[in-house]
Design goal:
The chain has 331 residues and is of the alpha/beta class. The chain is 40% helix and 17% strand. The chain is globular and about 55 Å long. Bound molecules: nicotinamide-adenine-dinucleotide (NAD).
């Protein structure tokens, strides 16, 4: 087993988007391991920044409210870091259709600003990028491996793909060690619970906790790969400290598919309330629907000592327990 503590103890680690779900979960793992963590977050609505996500470790890390698009701020923030998890992002693929400029501004130009400042001021740091399964567009075969064609169908997926190529370029041209991930559907504690723009399981959990109606599009047979955020953070962390991952692209998910209606059934069963109805696919969803998606995690598992530990039922139960305890901080 990889001894993470010996690899990150005393290391300086920057996490952009650090007050959001994935970034704060990483911070929760890194601080007890002795890493010197700095979080950068612009706290832009409607994304998931929440200081409560790190309240228990607030005195053991640095929080810097800054935007990854800010050239002066990032020039200083990248310096001296050993690892940069560059997770800041506009996360809603539907919003990217409404506001493609904002998406390009954050998800492409913001990321360019970080890596370009790394090139000038800290080219030896490792940088980790969080792309999306949506980059694949309509799925041609399952499980989806890294060789599956990329056919981005929204500005979000397009800009994530452009950013992925940007990281590849900086690796090949400037030898900046990068690790690129294409993430399936993450869920779990510390996600925003205010809207349904992303993290569907979390939103459905809220509806069930309020005994409201959950709408299933179509027959509910669509297959998705839901990955618990703790498992996802472990993969990101291990890849960052594994030299064989640098310059590589990985698909990351649970490696297991679950039907949409099956996920909803588990959720309603765990919460003990919530109504379910089937509705026709809304037009704006039909246009971006990808078809069934299951991640092929073989390449990742060959490269790092990692396996998803939390199955869907356990993950939803743990997420429910978390929001029952801390509902006031997220509603
Ligand atoms: N949640 C998902 O469904 C999903 C799936 C695949 C990939 N990702 C990617 O993972 C990353 C983290 O997402 P998350 O799930 O933790 O979402 P999140 O909304 O919880 O976190 C994103 C964070 O980025 C911050 N942010 C946004 N724009 C910023 C900017 N310009 N400068 C600094 N901070 C900024 C937000 O304030 C927020 O705290 C994102 O890049 C996202 O695109 C997420």
């Amino acid at each position: 087993m990889t001894d993470l503590a010996s690899l990150v103890n005393g290391k300086r680690i920057l996490i952009t988007g650090g007050l959001g779900m994935i970034g704060s979960t990483l911070a929760q793992k890194l601080v007890p391991l002795g890493a010197k963590v700095t979080l950068v977050d612009a706290c832009i609505d409607p994304y998931g920044a929440n200081l409560f996500n790190i309240e228990n470790i607030r005195s053991q890390l640095t929080v810097n409210i800054a935007d990854i698009r800010d050239k002066e701020a990032m020039k200083w923030l990248v310096r001296g870091q050993d690892i940069i998890f560059n997770l800041a992002g506009q996360v809603s693929h539907n919003d990217s259709i409404e506001n493609p400029f904002l998406d390009a501004d954050i998800n492409y130009l913001g990321h360019l600003n970080v890596v370009e400042n790394m090139r000038k001021f800290n080219p030896r740091a490792v940088v980790v990028f969080s792309g999306s399964r949506l980059q694949f567009g309509r799925i041609e075969y399952n499980p989806v491996d890294e060789k599956h064609p990329l056919n981005p169908r929204t500005p979000y997926a397009l800009n994530k793909t452009a950013a992925e190529n940007l990281y590849k370029f900086y690796f090949e041209m400037h030898e900046i060690p990068c690790v690129v991930f294409r993430i399936a559907n993450p869920y779990g504690p510390r996600s925003q619970m205010k809207h349904s723009k992303y993290c569907m399981i979390n939103w459905f959990l809220r509806l069930a906790m309020e005994n409201k109606t959950i709408s299933i599009f179509g027959d509910g047979e669509q297959m998705r790969d839901y990955i618990y955020v703790e498992d996802l953070a472990d993969a990101l962390l291990l890849a960052a400290v594994t030299p064989a991952c640098h310059g590589e692209i990985f698909n990351v998910g649970s490696g297991t598919g679950a039907r949409f209606k099956e996920m909803v059934e588990i959720l309603v069963d765990i919460v003990g309330q919530g109504k379910v109805q089937s509705v026709p696919w809304p037009k704006d969803y039909v246009n971006v629907e990808t078809g069934d998606y299951i991640t092929n995690i073989t390449k990742l598992q060959k490269t790092i000592d990692w396996k998803p530990r939390v199955d869907l039922r356990t993950g939803i139960q743990q997420t429910f327990d978390y929001y029952q305890r801390h509902r006031a901080q997220y509603w």
